[in-house]
Amino acid sequence: MAKLAINKKTLKNQKTLILMGIPFAIYAIIFCYVPLFGWIMAFQNYKPKDGMWHSKFVGLGKFERLFSDDTFLKTIRNTFCMGAMNLVFSTIFAILFAILLNEFWTLKGKKIIQTVSYLPHFLSWIIVTGICFDVLSMENGVLNQVLVALHVIPEPINWLAYPKYFWWIVTFAHLWKETGWNSIIYLAAITSINPDLYEAASIDGAGRLSKIWHITLPGLKPTIMILLIMNIGNVLNAGFEVQYLLGNGLVQSVAQTIDIYVLKFGISNGDYSLGTAAGIFKSVVSIALIAIANAGAKAMGEESLF
Amino acid sequence: MEKKESAFGKHSSVTKPGMAKMGIKAPAEVGDGSGNIFSRRTTGDIVFDTINTIVLILFTLVVVYPLINTVAMSFNDGIDALRGGITFFPRAFTWKNYETVLAKQGMKTGAVISVLRTVIGTLTSTLCTALLAYVLSRKNFIFKKPLSMLYVITMYVNGGLIPVFLVYKALGLTNSFWVYILPGMVSAWNMLVLRTYMNGIPESLSESAELDGAGHFTIFFRIILPLSMPVIACVSLFSAVGQWNSWFDAMLYNRMSDNLTTLQYELMKLLSSVTNNNANVETMKNSDNMVTPRTMRAAATVVTALPIVCLYPFLQRYFVAGMTIGGVKE
After folding, report:
1. Contact A233, A287 (CB under 8 A)
2. Of B258, B70, B109, which Cα lies nearest the Cα of A127?
3. Do A259 and B62 touch (CB under 8 A)?
4. How far is CA B261 from CA A115, B117, B264, B298, in A?
5. Whole-angstrom Cα distance, residue B330 to residue B322?
6. Cβ within 8 Å, pair A103-B21
7. Among A25, A196, A197, B299, which residue has the least CB neighbours within 10 Å?
8. Number of Cα atoms under 13 Å in the Cβ half of residue A254
9. Residue B125: DSSP 8-state
């Protein structure tokens, strides 16, 4: 196929295609690129009545305020730690679940477990947090009941009232919702491992565990790497819904994430400039994380994204 | 292993770059592994299988129990539920929770709006995204590169909450039904998935139609769209679930309009009324009708989750297939 030059003839020939493309270009510009111009607000003391054209420029003042604000620094820590815990544990659990499921002895049972384990993925976070409240409840919450019955704790604990438990609760909520779903891609990858390898290992007298360790896990390595790289860029994006819905005044110091901070200071308190600055910080760090993960993977000679 | 026909039908052999990298050949069913009970079993195998079964059954129980418990709660008398001890089945059966929940004006409006946004949102989003994918899958379209770049960039950079909020406000999308529809009308990610698929459809099909005088719309609607149905099904299912489950837009943009509330947002209000003590007392006052916030919320949860839970078993294979083509990359 020869490369077509942009001239009158091709423009005329492709008139319909171009006319079809124009609305999409306009759509992208209005819904995705016009908001990007809003980043200017972060460098202004934006007042809705002055608008973007007449608000006073304050340079990096808003960023200075952000980084001297202890609340915001805690917010960064919370977002990052919860994102990282979530990434690490959900990867480990998904791989573990995929391997165990792959080794399950009946195909029928495997299907049932799969169907059940994918289901929570399709429930909204509102429903899942509601379930969390019920499970963790002081009165009749199943977790307290089980732990008291097993004598692990002497009396019911109000789990959501203690900052030390909050990150774990968020991590477990994610695990409950997504483990089954995340395992799909690993299961597919396990299926594509050459069966001859297992057979050869059996002949050499390898047991189930050593086959998992020496064949399945190495076979999964490329998939794990690619998914880790893809997800590292999302670490900061994972901190909104659960934290917003589960959080309360008692655990605010560990529950508030960047997105919640933006919502609170930007929308509720009306400080649009500060909120935008916090948002920009998040975007920039996310892009940097993707770039670093990608470069790291390339340097180690692993699969990379671009 | 018996190979089941994947949700993608005969075009599933199209290899996608990302997937090839991950070593994944096609959306496949789970292999039967090495855990066949008819093969020679050593003591180690038996121990392994036993532990494995116990772990997986425990896991399944952990996933399923809260769901079943919620259903049991929703059918149980509110005051009776306060005594505790309700596990898999309701103890004092009643329809009262559902009657109370469904009588709420918010739930009625919410149900209508949720259905509308799911249907309209899914249709427009799928159609527009597919049309864009079609335009970008035309091999010699001169603006192919810039137009696809315009969309790929949006996958990595976005304005963030506040600039987006202000733009939507300026566009008149606050307190409007269209805030549920317009922002999600074209999805860059779904566009890439669809375009990759459309690129795999033999060019000769559209070329011969063109020779017969068919225009682009005819080719799109009569040839490309029908042939892309398996992927269209996936993409639209995901978008439908997303529409049904989203609540933040209702809260952020349409909080002031009671007639634009959604089921999820109504459920969220019930959720915060449980954590918020004042509202709790408020609801308890009319507890003579044996409904408590806990049981009422259980009923609302069941109502909100019902469409998904009912449809899900039938659509599962499309969802799973959609997940495995997620490895597409530009």
Report:
1. yes
2. B70
3. no
4. 31, 11, 8, 19
5. 17
6. no
7. A196
8. 16
9. H
DSSP result, A159-197: GGG-HHHHHHHHHHHHHHHHHHHHHHHHHHHHHTS-HHH
pLDDT in tens, chain A (306 residues): 445 566 777 777 788 888 888 999 999 999 889 888 888 887 887 777 777 677 777 778 778 888 888 888 888 888 989 999 999 999 999 999 999 988 888 888 888 888 888 889 889 999 999 899 888 888 778 888 888 888 888 888 888 888 888 999 999 999 999 898 888 888 888 888 888 888 888 888 778 888 888 888 888 888 888 888 778 878 888 778 888 888 887 888 888 888 888 888 888 887 888 888 888 888 888 888 888 888 877 777 655 555
8 A C-beta contact, residue B24 and residue A220: no
Long-range contacts of B183-186 (CB under 8 A, 24+ apart): B183/A31, B183/B249, B184/B121, B184/B125, B184/B239, B184/B242, B184/B243, B185/A27, B185/B124, B185/B125, B185/B128, B185/B129, B186/A24, B186/A27, B186/A28, B186/B125, B186/B128, B186/B129, B186/B132, B186/B151
A213's tokens: 């360790």
Alpha-carbon distances of A275 from A235, A264, B167, rounded to whole Å: 19, 8, 15
Contact B245 A106 (CB under 8 A): no
Q: Which of A10, A104, A189 sits opposite B56 (nearest CB)?
A: A104
CATH of domain A61-299: 1.10.3720.10
Q: Output the CA–CA distances (angstroms, integers) from residue A171 to A86, A89, A174, A238, A289, in the order listed.
A: 5, 8, 5, 11, 21
What chain B holds in terms of domains, given with CATH numbers, is: 104-327 (1.10.3720.10)
ipTM of the complex in this document: 0.83
DSSP A67: H
Residue A174, amino acid = H
Contacts of B53 in chain A (CB under 8 A): 104-105
Distance from the B97 Cα atom to the nearest Cα atom in chain A, whole angstroms: 16
* Interface subset of B 118-177, CB within 8 angstroms of A: 128, 131-132, 135, 138-143, 147, 150-151, 153-154, 156-167, 171
Contact A79, A257 (CB under 8 A): yes
Q: Evaluate whether B52 touches A103 at the Cβ level (below 8 Å).
A: yes
Taking alpha carbons only, the member of B317, B49, B44 closest to residue A109 is B49
**Residues A127 and B297: beta-carbon distance below 8 Å:** no
